[in-house]
Write a structure and sequence with these properties.
The chain is mainly beta. The chain contains two helices and twelve strands. The chain has a single domain, classed as YhcH/YjgK/YiaL (Jelly Rolls), CATH 2.60.120.370. The strands form three sheets. It has a six-stranded antiparallel β-sheet, with helices on one face. A three-stranded antiparallel β-sheet has the order 4-8-7, with no helix packed on it.
Amino acid sequence: MIVANINSKDLECYASLHPQFAKAFDEMKRILAEGAEDGKIVLDGDSLFINVQSYTSKPESDCGFEAHKKYIDIQLILEGEEIIGYESADKLTLTKEYDESADYMLYALNGDYDKIRLTRGDFVILFTEEPHAPAIAADAPTPVRKAVVKVLSN
């Protein structure tokens, strides 16, 4: 997992980690500057796309962990703030086996996990099989706009 801001001087280093990351970062910067409607933005077929979404963050008790096997997630906060939980899979209880068609598995939220607060321009790169709990309210449930970039991992 990597946590950074879209204006980070280290963005070039992160771009070298995957052939699609540079294109993803360029589009993330554009969306943050110019805005985008909620929905799917296809950049390279099923290999690289972005889901722009609006929702209200949730109380911690209403959240859980998810992980993916096919796609790397890059989650960029466009508006608002939220907490994303992070924990290793061996410390979590699997509650839903991997669903290949939807590319996710679910884990129960435990009481002892790392938390990252993200605000406008902050992003997190979640590699495959890294459990994460998105959409947790920072202080109280508030509106959030987020761009979730899906990058095919292989």
